[in-house]
Structures are given as structure tokens and as C-alpha cells.
Amino acid sequence: MLTANYHTHTPRCNHATGTEDEYIRSALSAGIRILGFSDHSPYIFDGDYYSHFRMRPELLPDYAQTVLHLKKQYSDQIQIHLGAECEYYPKYFREVLSMLRDNQVEYLILGQHFIHNEFDGPYTGVNSHREEDVKTYAHQTMDAMNSGLFTYFAHPDLLQFHGDQKIYLRYMRQICREAKSCGIPVEINLLGYREKKWYPNPLLYEAAAEEDCPVIIGCDAHAPEVFQDTETEDHAREMIRRYGLTLLDTVELRKI
Q: Is the pTM of this model over 0.90?
């Protein structure tokens, strides 16, 4: 049974369902004692480029106010936190950080869906055979972790690499080594299991085990009912046992 889940979305990202109140009540019924909302952070880019998988900047105040209100309302039943899942885009990160701070966002989880600055780099879910892509992904996410602003690394194996798996494993080891050095766990992502995606990648488990890097289970909840999915959670725990990984039930939030 999960003690905490820090990876929870809302419909503002355009690909999730359910109200915040429904997520909270579902989490309570599943025995979760700590629930962090971490919807996809807004980003403001140059020109007319916009990514449609994240909340719009004008929705951020309502998101923050709603979660903070429910945090007070349910304070005697569950610990609620206001966070965001955020990419590390070097050119624009300072601006988005300021926007999140202005809206009382408490913590960030790193979810790197693109490399470079998104509009000038490939989506990490696109099949790649290029070592340059996995190398850039590794170095960019290691820079993010070294910022000291991210609580954990969500789906670090999101990059879909189909080149030489020895190359992939080498960079996953670098990521896990850096994560451990920074005191950041890497996530075992339950959405990938539920939807039979290319992640979680067993090579991530191998790398985390070799580098003694702790892991954390993240529901990556896009619907309230996923907290009741104990079968997927059991599958993740079995894989954790198989690789002898150190599992963290909770983490200390890194304030932004």
C-alpha cells in the first residue's frame, strides 16, 4: 500500500480527468496519507509556439488556489502539497520558476518530455537510435538535478532509445549516479505499467541497483480511480524486489 503519492495531475493539463476533490477522496480510500498534486507546469516560450499537454499560464492561479483550499479543508485527514511536474529548459527555466513561486508552488518533480528547449528538440517518446539524443537527455537532466530544486526525477526512462542498449545503460548509470549524489530518488512510474508503455525500462532498474540509487513509486495519476489499482503497484514492488532496489515511501520536499 502506498503511503504517499507526489505525482498527481488535474484536467488543466488537457489529458487528465476528475476533480481535485475526487483525487483526494480516492487517495483517502486507498490509505494514502500524503498526496502531492503536480500538474504539468506552464511554460512561456518565444513566438507562437505552445505545448498542449500542460496547463496554460492563466490557469495556474486557480490550480494553486484550489489545491491550497483543499489542503486546509482536509488537513485533519490527509497531508496535501502543491507541486508541479516541470521540464528543465535552460533558456526559460528562470521565468517559469518565478511564476511558480509567485503562486506558492511548494515543490517540483522533474519530468523531461523534450530535450533542449522543447520547440528546438525532439520529444523523448519518439523512437530514437541516436546516441546524441540520450547523451543530451542525460546531461540536461543531470543539470536539472544539480539545481537543487527538484524533489525527484519522474519517469527517468521516458526517453525511448532503440540504439545500442549498452549505450543506453551507460547513460542511465550516469543519471542514477548523479541522482544519488544529489539525494534525489528516481521514480518507478505506474502509468507506464498501466498503459503498457515503453517505460519503466528494466535497464533503469539495473542502473539504479548498480549505483545504489533509491527509487520511489509514482502513480502519475491522470484519473482518481488509479489509486485503487493495487495490481499495478504490486507489479512494481515485485520488480523492485527482483533488482534489490532501495524503495523510499516518502521524500522530503525540496522547497523552490
A: yes
